[in-house]
Amino acid sequence: MSRVLSAKPRVLVVYYSFSGQTIGLLHKLADGLRFRGVEVAMERLRPVQAMRFPVGTLGSTLRMMLATCFRPRVAIEPLSAESRGRFDLVVLAGPTWSYNPSGPVLAFLDRDGERMLAGRKVLPFISCRGYWRWHWFGLRGKLRACHADIANLMVFTHPQPEPWRTIGVFLKIAGKAPERSPLLKKWYSRFGHGRDQQEEAWRFGLGLGQALLRGDDLAALDFRTPTAQP
Ligand SMILES: Cc1cc2nc3c(=O)[nH]c(=O)nc-3n(C[C@H](O)[C@H](O)[C@H](O)COP(=O)(O)O)c2cc1C
User: With a 6 A CB cut-off, is 191 part of the ligand 1 pocket?
Assistant: First the structure.
């Protein structure tokens, strides 16, 4: 049963993005929500020690990938006062790091998760190269431990075929540009999410916005993408 809400729905997007992929999609999602008349506040998780992208060398990329297997927390600055307002939904977004949520998102969950998410509707949003299930299982466990009400799930994977998307991510993080390399550009035309996926994020924003306006059950919405079928 739908019910029309009297106040304008408000969505808080808490996010971390290292190489710009998550935020690119979130801008589109937020545009779709705003188009429906939903208020959207963006809250970026800011590491206390800025993390440099690209990291610079293949060696430091490999070290980062190995280190993130152990889920190190990346200390973050306090959140803004705005994030303490009334919100109908929190979107918690970020990339997969070695099969896990990223360090800043883990630090957020440890420090602020219970206080900010308990009893609230939360929509996890994952951007990754291709493998997101372990990330999702771990994140879901942490959200449950924070007593969050998990509303649904959005996952976007890079659309390039393997092995090029893995090679592409590795090179890109190291600071190389495979899409400009004479050897690789034939197989790797673009890094990360494509324009179709940005359109998709916009459509998801429209659908989510409409559901929030009507008070519909968010779990009934279909956010499956062609590249990341559950
Ligand atoms: C340290 C590190 C580890 C990563 N590990 C994974 C992984 O295990 N699985 C995966 O699908 N993508 C992995 N990725 C790729 C990112 O999840 C992907 O490029 C994502 O789109 C980046 O989003 P962002 O630009 O918002 O940070 C990793 C990236 C980094 C930097």
Answer: no
The total of other beta-carbon atoms located within 10 Å of residue 98's CB is: 16
Residue 110 lies in a domain: yes
- Give mean pLDDT in consecutive 10-residue pieces for the chain, a chain of 230 residues: 70 98 98 98 98 96 97 98 96 98 98 98 98 97 98 97 92 92 85 96 98 98 87
Q: Hey, whose CA ends up nearest to atom 29 of ligand 1?
A: 97
Q: Kindly give the number of the ligand 1 atom that is closest to the alpha carbon of 68.
A: 1
Name 189's Cβ contacts closer than 8 Å, sequence gap at least 6.
Answer: 160, 179
pTM, full prediction: 0.96
Say if 228 falls within a structural domain. no
Residue nearest to atom 3 of ligand 1 (CA): 97
**Is residue 176 assigned to a domain?**
no
Residues of the domain holding 114? 10-159+194-219
For residue 131, report the distance from its CA to the centre of ligand 1, in Å.
Answer: 9
